[in-house]
């Protein structure tokens, strides 16, 4: 796979790379945050059509996420805490799907102001686009005026490219509270859908109470909402894979080691959306040590190598360690993974992926370390049961 980074200038213009104009390409574009099943359907269609027409397969990947850039008026913070996955994870998934070329475009407000007609002209003239693949409700260009119907009309009028529309919505729509905030479940075990088994009248009442808005079932917004409420199984089903975050293992307070549960502690620089505080069953994957000053290609290679990397079932904690935080005065949010391994794992300085397979329980303060140990043993057993089924 080739990865090309394109940085628009202050006017939003791009200096396009030289490409082989004799081999046209099938291309799609978007942020592809999380690479959920809707995204996978679009990517798979690009690969399918490229093979059918003996064309190249390409993705134009916007980074940062357009929603993130617009929400901050172009003055984006360094960290996008709402991004489900890192750019490296998304590109690695595209490579596994068979994409040959990824153009990573540094999304900006100036770039967003280009009309969809101008932009599509650039794709055909500069990159040799023969087919544009889009999801069913995609829109691009200034004011999002380039919706599927407008682009279809343009393709028919010019005859220089084709439009292929993929149903990437999934099974209908769901409703999400308009101003929801992460809410840790209060009970043990994977939370249920509060609307499961509800009548139409009950659904309407719930939607009105929470000022809920409709969103696609297969959408990054829905996945964030589910993760923010501990509904890991539903989120993973939409993603088509286990939700994960990555980070570097650092030295912690070693409280876990003192009670017989040594953990791998992730540093503050975590890539991926953190589910709500709680204890989870999942996996820890050792990606190894990243090269010094690792670039995007290095990070993508690191993620791709995860297929053959060592992985262990793990009980994962996200929170502020309520049993100990009063004594230490440290309340920062931390991620720890206790690997179910008989061997001591020396992972300091390694990049690891923490994958989430199920919600076990909320973070609670125990009366003593002994009570905490007893609960941790139950968490380990449940983790074994959940991961043994995967």
TrEMBL record:
Gene3D superfamilies: HUPs, Riboflavin kinase-like. One of its GO terms (molecular function) is FMN adenylyltransferase activity. It catalyses: FMN + ATP + H(+) = FAD + diphosphate; riboflavin + ATP = FMN + ADP + H(+). Pathway: Cofactor biosynthesis; FAD biosynthesis; FAD from FMN: step 1/1. Residues 238-388 form the Riboflavin kinase domain. Keywords: ATP-binding, FAD, Flavoprotein, FMN, Kinase, Nucleotide-binding, Nucleotidyltransferase, Transferase. Pfam families: FAD_syn (PF06574), Flavokinase (PF01687). One of its GO terms (biological process) is FAD biosynthetic process. Belongs to the RibF family. PANTHER family: RIBOFLAVIN KINASE, RIBOFLAVIN KINASE/FMN ADENYLYLTRANSFERASE. This is Riboflavin kinase. It comes from Bifidobacterium angulatum DSM 20098 = JCM 7096. The lineage of its organism: Bacteria, Bacillati, Actinomycetota, Actinomycetes, Bifidobacteriales.
């Amino acid at each position: 796979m080739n990865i090309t980074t394109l940085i628009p200038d202050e006017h939003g213009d791009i200096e396009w790379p030289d490409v082989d104009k004799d081999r046209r390409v099938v291309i799609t574009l978007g942020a592809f945050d999380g690479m959920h099943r809707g995204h996978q359907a679009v990517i798979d269609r690009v690969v399918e059509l490229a093979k059918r027409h003996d064309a190249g397969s390409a993705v134009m990947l916007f980074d940062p996420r357009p929603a993130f850039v617009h929400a901050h008026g172009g003055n984006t913070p360094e960290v996008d805490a709402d991004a489900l996955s890192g750019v490296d994870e998304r590109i690695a998934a595209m490579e596994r799907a068979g994409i040959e070329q990824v153009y990573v475009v540094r999304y900006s407000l100036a770039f967003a102001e280009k009309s969809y007609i101008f932009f599509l002209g650039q794709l055909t003239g500069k990159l040799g686009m023969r087919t544009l693949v889009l999801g069913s409700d995609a829109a691009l260009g200034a004011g999002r005026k380039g919706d599927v119907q407008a682009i279809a009309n343009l393709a028919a009028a010019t005859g220089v490219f084709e439009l292929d529309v993929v149903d990437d919505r999934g099974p209908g729509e769901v409703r999400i509270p308009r101003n929801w905030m992460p809410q840790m479940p209060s009970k043990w075990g994977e939370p249920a859908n509060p609307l499961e088994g509800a009548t139409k009248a009950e659904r309407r009442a719930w939607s009105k109470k929470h000022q809920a808005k409709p969103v696609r079932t297969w959408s990054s917004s829905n996945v964030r909402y589910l993760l923010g409420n501990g509904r890991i199984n539903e989120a993973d089903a939409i993603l088509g894979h286990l939700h994960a975050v990555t980070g570097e293992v650092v030295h912690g307070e070693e409280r876990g080691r003192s009670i017989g549960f040594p953990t791998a502690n992730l540093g503050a620089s975590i890539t991926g959306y953190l589910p709500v505080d709680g204890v989870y069953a999942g996996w820890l994957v050792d990606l190894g040590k990243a090269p010094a000053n690792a670039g995007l290609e290095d990070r993508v290679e690191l993620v791709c190598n995860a297929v053959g990397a060592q992985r262990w079932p793990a009980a994962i904690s996200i929170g502020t360690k309520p049993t100990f935080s009063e004594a230490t005065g440290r309340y920062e949010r931390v991620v720890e993974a206790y690997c179910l391994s008989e061997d001591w794992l020396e992972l300091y300085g390694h990049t690891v992926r923490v994958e989430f397979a199920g919600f076990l329980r909320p973070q609670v303060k125990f009366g003593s370390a002994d009570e905490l140990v007893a609960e941790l043993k139950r968490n380990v057993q449940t983790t074994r049961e959940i991961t043994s089924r995967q």
